[in-house]
UniProtKB/TrEMBL annotation:
InterPro entries: CheY-like_superfamily (IPR011006), GGDEF_dom (IPR000160), Nucleotide_cyclase (IPR029787), Rev_trsase/Diguanyl_cyclase (IPR043128), Sig_transdc_resp-reg_receiver (IPR001789), WalR-like (IPR039420). SUPFAM superfamilies: CheY-like, Nucleotide cyclase. SMART domains: GGDEF (SM00267), REC (SM00448). Transmembrane segments: none annotated. This is Response regulator. Pfam families: GGDEF (PF00990), Response_reg (PF00072). Signal peptide: none annotated. GO terms for molecular function: phosphorelay response regulator activity; transcription cis-regulatory region binding. Residues 298-311 have a biased composition (Polar residues). GO terms for cellular component: cytosol; protein-DNA complex. GO terms for biological process: regulation of DNA-templated transcription. It comes from Phototrophicus methaneseepsis. Residues 154-304 form the GGDEF domain.
């Protein structure tokens, strides 16, 4: 199992390759970006557990990259270690003031950097309640974010998403295949938010087969319907050819083989456009109830009920 996903942002190719090879050998999955904008694009595709960020980049400074990551809701929790040739006290203070978690000066000791990476990822998991598979915020952070939203006047919607038949899939295909589905789901949510949401939208992972999206989008139905359709289309790749062709799994129990539908998602949401919420529990319970009723919105009738209804 991977120890975590690291994004290296470094324009010196030799250093970037050395770090990629070293940390891959230590059990991490790696991505490398040579420009600041490439790094920002990479975080939109997949959230890393940690970013090692050079300050001197060809298109924008590492400070600007850090500022963008810290002011974007979905990436604000990712630990950042600055890696730079600058050794001035003022440079270190500037990086830490932007929210960087650590600062390493070139030339550096690779073993020391490894320990700093390990410590930063561990501290993030302890303090920020991040899911180890998807790197999305879990219960504590989601509640904290909701409390802040409830003090604001800008309208928003809370979307409850559940992967149906996920537990059966994991039993048949194994826990590793189940983890891949969770990573796929996190990536899909990020892509849908990019297309149909806003830069301030938020995604969380409170439970193994349960995800949440908090969006300021004007058209929540477009977001949820696209999410459901893409899930149905793309989840097929996680099944064997035989299961894809017949459209279900065969699962043995005491009564013989039973047909179990392929995974789908159930979606329900609530919005401050139509409700005033007094506490967080009211929000989560109402959204979950709408999901169980099979509608994406606040009534059970929806043009996409055939897609969104739970099996």
């Amino acid at each position: 199992m991977s120890k975590g996903h690291i994004l290296i942002v470094e324009d010196e190719i030799d250093i970037a390759n050395m770090l990629r090879i070293y940390f891959s050998g230590q059990g991490y999955t790696m991505d490398v970006a040579h420009k600041g904008q490439d790094a920002l694009n990479a975080t939109r595709k997949q959230l890393p557990n940690l970013i090692v960020l050079d300050i001197n980049l060809p298109d924008m400074s590492g400070y600007d990259v850090c500022r963008e990551l810290r002011t974007t809701t979905r990436t604000s929790h990712i630990p950042i270690i600055f890696l730079t040739q600058k050794d001035e006290r003022s440079d270190k203070i500037a990086g830490l003031e932007l929210g960087a978690d650590d600062y390493v000066t070139k030339p550096f000791d690779i073993e020391e950097l490894k320990l700093r990476v390990q410590n930063a990822i561990a501290a993030s998991a302890r303090q920020k309640n991040v899911h180890p598979i998807t790197n999305l915020p879990t219960g504590g952070l989601i509640e904290e974010y909701l409390r802040g939203l409830m003090r604001q006047t800008r309208p928003w919607a809370y979307i409850d998403v559940k992967i149906q038949q996920f537990d059966v899939f994991s039993e048949v295909y194994g826990w590793s295949a189940g983890d891949e589905v969770l990573r796929f789901m996190a990536l899909l949510i990020g892509e849908v938010i990019d297309k149909y949401g806003t830069p301030d939208d938020y995604a969380g992972h409170p439970g193994r087969d349960n995800f949440v999206i908090i969006t300021h989008a004007d058209d929540v139905d477009a977001l949820t319907e696209n999410l459901a359709r893409r899930f149905l289309d793309e989840i097929q790749q996680h099944y064997s050819f035989i299961d894809r062709e017949r459209g279900y799994m065969l699962v043995s129990d005491g009564n013989g083989d039973q047909r179990v539908p392929l995974m789908s998602i159930g979606v329900g949401y609530v919005s401050t456009m139509t409700h005033h919420f007094s506490d967080i529990r009211e929000i989560t319970e109402m959204a979950a109830e709408n999901r169980r009723r099979g509608g994406s919105g606040e009534s059970s009738t929806n043009n996409s009920d055939d897609i969104l209804t739970a099996w």
